[in-house]
Specification:
Elements: H1 3-35, H2 38-75, H3 79-108, H4 112-135, H5 139-161, H6 171-191, H7 194-197, H8 205-240, H9 242-281, H10 283-310, H11 312-319, H12 328-353, H13 358-382, H14 386-406, H15 416-436, H16 442-453, H17 458-486, H18 508-515, H19 519-550, H20 556-565, H21 575-585, H22 592-598, H23 602-613, H24 617-625, H25 630-641, H26 643-658, H27 662-667, H28 676-687, H29 691-722
C-alpha cells in the first residue's frame, strides 16, 4: 500500500472516531445547559477554558516534544528513560499548579480553583499519553480511550445531579471531567505498558536537553496559540459577565468542537505518516503526503463551514436551553475561523519537521496581537458576537502570514481543479442544509461515505449521495426517535416539532422496565435460547459444510442439491407438522421446541461450504500427508482460516434466533417461558399508551444485536467480499 493510501486510511480511521467523540462533546455541552443554571455553565466554561490555556502554556511544549521523539526512543529501546523523564516533568508541573491553586483558593476563599487544578492534572496526563499512543500507531487504544473520556463527562455529570434541572453549582461538571480524563489516562498508562518499561529512575539529562531544545520554543507558540483561541472568551467575560460568556462559549463550542474533530481526526492520521516519510526520504517524500492531507481536509472542512453557517440558528435552538440562541452567529464566525486555523496547522508542519519552531512562535505572536486588538474593537461595536468575528480576522491573518513565510521551505499545493470541486461541493451542501434545515446535515456526511465506499468520481458521487441520504434519513430517523423517546417523560413524547434531545432526561423508564415488569425474565429466556441455538447450529452446520466442501463421497452433488431444495419450502408450512411432532415428543411449551429446529440451518451450511471452498485444497492435502486426521484438519486448520465466515454465520444465527417471533408464539403458552419478542408484545399491552416506557424496552432489546454487529461487521463484509458461489 502506498504512503498516500496508508495516510488516507489512517485519517479515515480517526475521522469517524473523532466525529463520535465530537458529537459526545456537543451532547455534553447541550446537556449542561439543561441541567445547570446559566451562571453555573459560565463558571464551568471559564474554568475549563483556563485549564486548556494552562495546559497549552505549561505542558503543551512537553506533549509536543514527547510526540516528536517517542517513536525514535521506542526504536532505540529507550522507552524507560523517555517515560521517566516525562513523568518527572509532569510531576513538577503539577506541583507548581497545585501550589498556585491552593494560594488562590486561600486568598479568594473560592474552591473553584481547586476544582480547576484537579481537572488540569487529569486532562494533562491524558493528553500527553494519548499523543504517545497515536505516534506509536496504537490507534484503536487512542480512539477507545478518547470516546470513553467524552462519554464519561456526559454520564458522570448527569448521574451526580440525578437528572435535576437548573442545578446551581458547577461542582458536578468539575468532578465528571476530572474522573473521566483520569480514568482514560489510567487506561493509556496500561495501553503503553508503562508499568513494564518504567523503572522508577530519574530523568535522562540528554533527553531532557532534547526536550528543551525542541519544546521550549513551542512554549511561546503555545502561549500565542492559547491567546488566539481563548482571549475572546476572557474578553467577553470581562465586558459582558458570566451569563453572556455562557451563551458565547456554548455556541462557540459547537463549531470549534466540529472542526476540532475534523482537523484533529485527519491530522492524527496524516502527521505520523508525514513524519515517517520525512525521516526516511526527506522533503521530497513528505511533500506529496502533506498535499494529500490538505486536500482531504479541505474536502471535508469547506462544506462543513457552509453547512454550519446555514443552520446556525436552528442548531442553537435545537441543542441548548432557552436564551442561548442569541449566540447563533458565533457558530458561523467560529467555523470560518477554524477553517483558517486548520490550514495554518498544515503550513506549520514544514517548520516543525525542520525543527525551526521559532518561526511558528513569531507568526502566532503576530496573529495573537491582531486577535486582541480586533476582539476589543469588535466587542465594543457589535456586542459579544464580535469576539467570534475577531477570531476570523486573526486566524485569516495567521494563515496568510504563515503561508507567505513558509513558501521558502515548502508548502502544500492544492490544484485549482480540486479546489473548484471542493467549492462547488460546499455550495451544494450549504444550499441543501439551508433548504432542509438540520436534516441537511446529512449532506455533509453522506457524500464522503459514498466517495469512500462506492466511487471517487465526484460526478457520480454527488448525484448518488441524494438517494443515499434520503434512505439514511428514512432508516435512521425511527431509531433515533425510539432512542430519544426512551429517555423522555410521557408528556414530552408527542411534542411537535420533534425534539430528539429531551428537554428533561428520564432514566426512570429503564429502571421501571427491569424492576416493575417481567422483562428481565424475557431477556434471560432469549439469551438462553439464542446462545444454545447458535452454539449447536455452528457446530453442526460447520461439520456438514466441511463434508460437502472437502470430502469426496458417492452422490455428494445430488445430495447437496436435494438438500438445498428444502429452502424452497416456506417455514409457515412446517408449523403444523412441527407442532404435532413436538406434541408427540412432549416438548411443546418448553424451550426445546425453539432450540431443536434452530440447530440446523440450510443457509448456514451453504454459507460455510462456500467459505471452506475458498481455502486452497493444497492446505488440506499437505496436512493429510503430514498425518493429520480430518477432525484435526477441521479444527486446527480450516476453522481458523474461516474466521470471517464463522463470524458472519454467528451474526446471522444470532439475529434469526433473537428476533424469532412465530415459533415462541406457537409453541409457548407459559408466560414465564416467553422470549423477548413475545414478551415485548405482552409488555406493550401492560404499558398501554406509555410510549416512553415501550421505547425503553425496545431499545434494550436491540442492544445485543447492535453490539454483536459492531463486533462482527468487519468479518461480515470480508466474508461476502471474498466468497462467491461455486458449484
Amino acid at each position: 500500500m502506498s504512503g498516500k493510501n496508508t495516510m488516507t486510511r489512517d485519517a479515515m480511521l480517526f475521522l469517524p472516531a473523532k466525529v463520535v467523540e465530537g458529537l459526545l462533546v456537543i451532547a455534553c455541552s447541550s446537556l449542561y445547559t439543561h441541567i445547570f443554571t446559566q451562571g453555573a455553565v459560565g463558571t464551568f466554561g471559564i474554568v475549563n477554558t483556563t485549564v486548556q490555556f494552562c495546559y497549552l502554556v505549561v505542558a503543551g511544549w512537553m506533549a509536543n516534544a514527547a510526540t516528536r521523539y517517542v517513536g525514535e526512543e521506542f526504536r532505540r529501546d529507550r522507552a524507560s528513560a523517555l517515560f521517566s523523564t516525562v513523568s518527572a516533568i509532569y510531576l513538577l508541573i503539577c506541583a507548581a499548579v497545585a501550589a498556585v491553586a491552593l494560594c488562590a483558593a486561600a486568598v479568594t476563599r473560592d474552591p473553584v480553583w481547586l476544582g480547576g487544578a484537579c481537572m488540569f492534572f487529569s486532562y494533562t496526563v491524558f493528553q500527553i499519553l494519548n499523543s504517545a499512543l497515536i505516534q506509536l500507531g496504537r490507534m484503536r487504544a487512542s480512539i477507545s480511550l478518547s470516546l470513553f473520556s467524552a462519554a464519561g463527562k456526559l454520564a458522570i455529570a448527569y448521574a451526580i445531579v440525578h437528572g435535576a434541572s437548573d442545578y446551581p453549582s458547577a461542582a458536578p461538571a468539575f468532578i465528571a471531567n476530572t474522573l473521566a480524563d483520569g480514568l482514560a489516562g489510567l487506561g493509556a498508562v496500561f495501553a503503553l505498558s508503562i508499568p513494564t518499561v518504567a523503572r522508577l529512575r530519574w530523568f535522562s539529562r540528554p533527553l531532557l536537553h532534547k526536550f528543551f531544545a525542541y519544546g521550549v520554543p513551542l512554549m511561546g507558540v503555545s502561549i500565542a496559540v492559547a491567546l488566539l483561541n481563548m482571549i475572546d472568551r476572557y474578553l467577553v467575560t470581562g465586558f459582558f459577565g458570566k451569563e453572556a460568556f455562557a451563551v458565547y462559549n456554548q455556541n462557540n463550542s459547537i463549531a470549534s468542537g466540529i472542526f476540532t474533530m475534523i482537523s484533529v481526526g485527519i491530522m492524527r492520521g496524516v502527521y505520523p505518516n508525514v513524519l515517517r516519510a520525512w525521516r526516511d526520504g526527506g522533503q521530497a517524500a513528505a511533500k506529496p503526503l502533506l498535499d494529500q492531507g490538505v486536500r482531504l481536509y479541505l474536502l471535508i472542512a469547506v462544506p462543513a463551514v457552509a453547512g454550519l453557517s446555514a443552520v446556525a440558528l436552528p442548531m442553537s435552538r435545537f441543542l441548548f436551553a432557552a436564551g442561548y440562541d442569541a449566540g447563533a452567529p458565533v457558530i458561523a464566525y467560529t467555523a470560518l475561523a477554524m477553517l483558517f486555523m486548520g490550514l495554518t496547522e498544515y503550513a506549520n508542519k514544514a517548520y516543525e519537521l525542520e525543527q525551526s519552531t521559532i518561526h511558528v512562535l513569531q507568526n502566532s505572536a503576530a496573529a495573537a496581537a491582531i486577535k486582541v486588538v480586533c476582539s476589543v474593537v469588535l466587542l465594543k461595536t457589535l456586542g459579544f458576537t464580535g469576539g467570534a468575528l475577531g477570531s476570523v480576522v486573526a486566524f485569516a491573518s495567521y494563515f496568510i502570514i504563515t503561508a507567505v513565510r513558509v513558501r521558502k521551505h515548502f508548502i502544500f499545493r492544492v490544484p485549482a481543479k480540486s479546489l473548484a470541486r471542493i467549492l462547488v461541493c460546499a455550495l451544494l451542501c450549504g444550499a441543501a442544509v439551508a433548504v432542509a434545515g438540520p436534516i441537511g446535515f446529512v449532506g455533509l456526511v453522506v457524500p464522503h461515505v459514498v466517495r469512500r465506499l462506492v466511487t471517487e468520481d465526484i460526478r457520480l458521487a454527488l448525484p448518488l449521495a441524494a438517494p443515499v441520504g434520503a434512505l439514511a434519513l428514512v432508516f435512521i430517523f425511527p431509531f433515533l426517535w425510539m432512542l430519544s423517546t426512551s429517555f423522555k417523560y410521557e408528556i414530552d413524547v408527542m411534542e411537535f416539532p420533534v425534539r430528539l434531545i429531551p428537554k428533561k432526561w428520564n432514566f426512570q423508564n429503564y429502571v421501571t422496565v427491569f424492576t416493575k415488569s417481567d422483562f428481565p425474565g424475557y431477556y434471560l429466556n432469549s439469551i438462553k435460547v439464542t446462545f444454545t441455538t447458535i452454539v449447536g447450529e455452528l457446530c453442526i452446520t460447520t461439520m456438514a459444510a466441511y463434508a460437502f466442501a472437502r470430502l469426496n463421497f458417492r452422490g455428494k452433488k445430488f445430495l447437496f442439491t436435494m438438500y438445498l431444495s428444502t429452502m424452497m419450502i416456506p417455514g409457515q408450512v412446517l408449523l403444523l407438522p412441527k407442532y404435532i411432532y413436538f406434541s408427540q415428543l412432549h416438548i411443546t411449551n418448553t424451550h426445546l421446541a425453539l432450540i431443536m429446529p434452530g440447530l440446523f440451518s440450510v443457509f448456514g451450511v451453504l454459507l460455510m461450504r462456500q467459505v471452506f471452498m475458498q481455502i486452497p485444497y493444497e492446505y488440506t492435502e499437505a496436512a493429510y500427508i503430514d498425518g493429520a486426521s480430518h477432525p484435526t484438519i477441521f479444527l486446527k486448520l480450516i476453522l481458523p482460516l474461516a474466521k470471517p465466515g464463522l463470524m458472519t454465520a454467528l451474526l446471522l444465527a444470532f439475529t434469526w434466533s433473537w428476533n424469532d417471533y412465530i415459533n415462541p408464539l406457537v409453541f409457548l403458552s407459559n408466560d414465564k417461558l416467553f422470549t423477548l419478542t413475545v414478551g415485548l408484545q405482552r409488555f406493550q399491552e401492560d404499558a398501554s399508551t406509555n410510549y416512553a416506557l415501550i421505547m425503553a424496552g425496545a431499545t434494550v432489546s436491540l442492544i445485543p444485536l447492535i453490539a454483536l454487529f459492531l463486533f462482527t461487521q468487519k468479518y461480515f463484509i470480508e466474508s461476502f467480499a471474498s466468497a462467491g458461489v461455486k458449484g
